[in-house]
Specification:
elongated, alpha+beta, 33% helix, two-stranded antiparallel sheet
Length: 204
């Protein structure tokens, strides 16, 4: 077999060929894995909704009847999106705000009256051992338990005159978390106000 002449043209052709082959391989792998990844994310979401709605993982057939979204804008111009998963027990609402280290995203379960059934942290960038404790601190057996409370009656830390104990040495994270929960409640009840327009945002 004749050896390929070492020239700029041949080098470009070889590199192009390798790039095309690698691109095809990556596209194939993405195609093969897209389905399972999507299914896994859907399963995690379903389990998360069951968790915050206090539904049994196997025995309670919780059904999401409708998904609503509420979009609003903060005073700094950042758009926030709330996703509401309506179900027979009430609704699970995805909400986010800025914590001490970055965005803090939660999924909160409410009954039809707006009482908190449960919550889970979906994403956060809080300091390990401090702000990251929000995952457990506000749960039923936590020191700052919010389960059973209704945000309409106010959710603020005791340092600000409220009745919720903040995470030790993490007041900023605690305030951010409670704000995310309160905003989730307001989105569920249709009471979210857009900072720029001043209009109350409704579900879509």
């Amino acid at each position: 077999m004749k050896k390929l002449e070492s020239s700029l043209t041949n080098m470009v052709l070889v590199l192009t060929g390798v790039a095309v082959i690698m691109g095809c391989l990556l596209a194939f792998v993405n195609h093969v894995t897209a389905g399972p990844i999507s299914e896994q994310k859907q399963l995690e979401l379903e389990n998360g909704i069951k968790t915050v709605m206090q539904a049994e993982p196997q025995g309670d057939n919780l059904t999401v009847s409708k998904i609503d979204t509420v979009k609003t804008t903060e005073a700094n111009g950042k758009e926030l999106i709330y996703i509401i998963y309506n179900n027979e027990k009430g609704a699970a609402v995805q909400s986010s705000t800025m914590g001490f280290g970055g965005e803090l995203k939660v999924l909160v379960g409410f009954d039809h009256d707006g009482n908190i059934l449960g919550y889970t942290l979906l994403e956060h960038q809080e300091t390990p051992g401090l702000g990251a404790k929000a995952d457990q601190w506000f749960q039923k057996d936590g020191k700052g338990c919010i389960i059973g409370k209704n945000p309409a009656e106010g959710l603020t830390v005791s340092k600000d005159g409220g009745n919720v104990d903040a995470i030790t040495a993490s007041t900023i994270t605690s305030r951010a978390f409670l704000l995310a929960v309160t905003n989730a409640y307001n989105a569920y009840k249709g009471n979210i106000t857009d900072a720029q327009s001043g209009a109350t945002k409704q579900r879509k």
